[in-house]
Write the structure tokens for this entry.
Amino acid sequence: MNVASRKPASVKNTVERVSAPYEPGVNMTIKNAFYAQSGGVTAVINASACGVIETARKHADKIGTVYAGRNGIIGALTEDLIDTSKESDADIAALRYTPSGAFGSCRFKMKSLEANKREYERLIDIFKAHNIGYFFYNGGGDSADTCFKVSQLSEAMGYPIQAIHVPKTVDNDLPITDCCPGFGSVAKYIAVSTLEASFDVKSMCKTSTKIFVVEVMGRHAGWIAAAGGLVADQGIPVVILFPEIEFDQAKFLASVDAKVKEHGFCTIVVSEGCHYPDGKFLAEQGTRDAFGHAQLGGAAPVVANMIKEALGYKFHWAVADYLQRAARHIASKTDVEQAYALGEAAVMLALDGKNSVMPTVVRLSDIPYKWEIGAAELKDVANVEKFMPRDFISEDGYGITDKCRNYLTGLIQGEDYPAYENGLPKFVTMKNVAVEKKLPEFKL
Amino acid sequence: MNVASRKPASVKNTVERVSAPYEPGVNMTIKNAFYAQSGGVTAVINASACGVIETARKHADKIGTVYAGRNGIIGALTEDLIDTSKESDADIAALRYTPSGAFGSCRFKMKSLEANKREYERLIDIFKAHNIGYFFYNGGGDSADTCFKVSQLSEAMGYPIQAIHVPKTVDNDLPITDCCPGFGSVAKYIAVSTLEASFDVKSMCKTSTKIFVVEVMGRHAGWIAAAGGLVADQGIPVVILFPEIEFDQAKFLASVDAKVKEHGFCTIVVSEGCHYPDGKFLAEQGTRDAFGHAQLGGAAPVVANMIKEALGYKFHWAVADYLQRAARHIASKTDVEQAYALGEAAVMLALDGKNSVMPTVVRLSDIPYKWEIGAAELKDVANVEKFMPRDFISEDGYGITDKCRNYLTGLIQGEDYPAYENGLPKFVTMKNVAVEKKLPEFKL
């Protein structure tokens, strides 16, 4: 089937095959649901899981058990399913405050139906064996593509399945939705941490550190780096190195030097994806250790050493890496609420008979930030990457514009602290009880 | 004067010279106070400043204006004083929630009285010119030494000054006091962040990252690294690389490999001070870039690459650097309370006529953690470094013992969140109004 030509009518057809439960007076066929987490995890992907499972539990007349894939789609393919009904309501509620992927995630991209029919047939076998009629896939761009392919199974392989994608990615690069759950919390973490560290450097700059470089995630898009730009409102001199802007060493050094001369210090937020005009990442310096082995370093030490060599300023640098995307302790309340709402909406869309869709965040206003839940067709989501608009980046390429500031500010609103016990956050670990296998083994 | 032989009598003599204000019926001589921040700043050094200034304001009958040194002791030497009376009560109260050094800090160690009499004479000139009778110095080991030298001025140079040291250092290496303000908050940040990132890796390890390395501060002592060990209680496989334990590559790799084989992943907390038996830091790998320039990297990428090369595991690494010591957003409530209490106690010690002392934290019990304020003679503090006891480190050198866990747990108790505005913490920036200069310029 050519998905681009999919008409509402065909969606309706798909739905009708699983719509028996909705017909009053007809013996209800309760279907189970499959839920899986995919790709890099975030501080709030479990909040989406919480939204999916709590909402499904409220509709036990239509949805039976929610089976989670252990380690994402791999759990489906290998029939390694987790019975979430074995988890208490309290533990499921605690997912809202627990970072990471509670059921395990994976980096595994399914090929097209044509290229690997065997895997899709296996999925159908699993769905049939466990009476699964709902497929909720929680991930980013690659996962949206997988989910879209699964949504085609209904027609292509004659098995009734409603596939709903639940958006998630700190990279914030999914189209249509105003933002992606996970991003708002990373943005908040980076803005808060950059502000704190900048205050620190400001205190030290008279006789010591004048340069602070923090490296943030974002290989293709500078959304996360942009969040560091929010500290400029508080008088912090900050230079941002976006992946969208080709690195120009002389211009960059001049910008940093001017800021140090004016303010006594300068903060630099460098995206891991920052690169030279020839595409080479800043982090790829051809660096070798004493034995001649290639060393993988970060962009931050490269930038810091570059400044030291050219301008002589004492520096400190940090690489936030997983600390940023796992930082549930300073998650954005808005982000948590959206993550939950999207999980909830995915189930409601399923109950509404939808297939091949993704619930989205629709922005209603910037200040105050108001949003509601919408929905997008997966055919419009899969394999489309959303980059930062050029007018979100200041003309010199090193800062953010008001437009960007207005966009970001809404996403970092509010705090949503986890409970603490003995000084540490009280995160939940699922029991993750395995469902009995019914099928022969399957080699990945 | 031989400080080691100082007797209570001589302390008393010192006090009597400035004790006029305490004699009832005698015309009160109100003295001003000098307060300065020194060395690396922390998330809570401003809470100590808050304690000093608020307490001084409550005793306006004895203490006049609190002058802060702009950029630490340099502000005193160059007569660059800040009039804190120009700051509102609300702004001074907000210091409690603001990381960094609000008046600027410095890295500047005064030489001995014999080696640099000129600087001490200058200090006395400044004290005289601004009627300063109280000297509060907020810092670590070097600052305690400076404060001790200033405390000797009274006798050695015939100027009445009461010098009180307010402890501060994330390194936690001051003697006598149970802990140093700043450390508890870094410990909490590292424990929380390590826990969050470990949950993340645990989700990813099936098909992706199996190793997470986080580098923490602590060149000489492993107090901060030890805090990462607290996550072991939550089932996280963690290997800690302390500066106290000479690095043994083969043994380390075997320990990591065993943990990955058992748990599927492993978290490594490496102290920046971790070194080989010959004293060479892990971070000093003789690394050179493509042009042959020496590159300063961190210990984390070295450890991560080492594991990748030997064991083949996919890794991620982070370097927390200033993010850890500036992280007011997740400060330990206990730490904030101690920082404030020590600032307050410093003023009360001064009002009690004390000189050459440092208020301390005295531990009364581990669980629940109970503490009170005590005091130590500066002669017993200056130039004494407190290391981690060997029995705080597990026998294999890669973990912490129950003794260490009991020690650390008290220090990270409680959260003390700053207020937020528009998604970001509401930190205060002082007006920092300069006091009119009365003396000729002084070249440092």
